[in-house]
Design brief:
The protein is an all-alpha fold. It has 2 helices and no strands. The longest helix has 31 residues.
Length: 69
């Protein structure tokens, strides 16, 4: 993760690096969400609630990142 300066705006290089990191985080969350959804179909009932909570957390994280552009 890049260090974000607090005393000045990001320069172009820093801004591009931050955007790239945000996109990579989104991509990883989408993969995680898909993985949880596949596991949900194949798991026992007692594990389903746990996996559903992971899916919900992943969706919330994606929603937070969608506001960063």
């Amino acid at each position: 993760m890049i260090d974000i300066p607090r005393d000045r705006p990001l320069n172009d290089r820093e801004y591009k690096a931050l955007k790239k990191e945000i996109q990579e985080a989104r991509d990883q969350l989408l993969v995680a969400q898909s993985t949880w959804e596949v596991l949900l179909d194949d798991c026992q009932d007692e594990v389903k609630k746990l996996i559903e909570s992971y899916i919900e957390r992943t969706k919330k994280a994606l929603a937070l990142l969608s506001h960063v552009d």
